[in-house]
Write a sequence for this structure.
């Protein structure tokens, strides 16, 4: 509700909102899971390649860390599905959506770590260049820009616009008109 008593947003019950948010969350998880499954599947095959035995100890450690991160990422991103299955029909969907959202955020952080680690390993093996850490750091900044910076900027922009609209007295103009 706005300061003058007008309703903002969707006209939905808590349960309807939870249903909508659940569908949106699962769609988001599907996108992330696809990338994780491809990356993790690739990682699982590396140890069985002849070149694996020739990797330096440091690169083997990075590989093991990457595989463990990939497994943890998979677990975190599959977690919401398991949660839904186990609590379905128990009338706790709003709470389940909040928990699943947190699980998904953990999965995305783990995905960032997995991709960073995989990129580090691949570039170390492929180039042996001293610039690899700087290149990996630049890619991490790129991910953070798109995954965190831009969404937070958009949220802040939307919130400031909403606050401006709420502060405006009714009929003061600048708001939406019937045709917009």
């Amino acid at each position: 509700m706005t300061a003058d008593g007008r309703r903002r947003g969707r006209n939905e019950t808590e349960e309807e909102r939870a249903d909508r948010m659940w569908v949106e969350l699962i769609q988001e998880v599907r996108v992330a899971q696809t990338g994780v499954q491809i990356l993790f599947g690739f990682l699982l095959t590396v140890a069985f390649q002849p070149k694996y035995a020739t990797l330096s100890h440091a690169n083997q450690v990075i590989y093991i860390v990457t595989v463990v991160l990939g497994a943890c990422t998979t677990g975190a991103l599959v977690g919401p599905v398991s949660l839904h299955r186990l609590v379905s029909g128990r009338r706790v969907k709003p709470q389940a959506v909040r928990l699943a959202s947190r699980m998904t955020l953990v999965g995305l952080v783990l995905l960032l770590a997995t991709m960073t680690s995989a990129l580090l390993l691949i570039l170390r093996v492929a180039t042996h260049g001293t610039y690899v850490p700087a290149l990996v750091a630049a890619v991490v900044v790129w991910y953070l820009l798109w995954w965190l910076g831009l969404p937070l900027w958009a949220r802040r922009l939307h919130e400031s616009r909403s606050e401006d609209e709420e502060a405006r007295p009714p009929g003061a103009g600048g708001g939406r008109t019937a045709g917009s």
User: Anything to note?
Assistant: The chain has four helices and no strands. Residues 176-180 have pLDDT under 50 and may be disordered. The two ends are 21 Å apart (CA to CA).
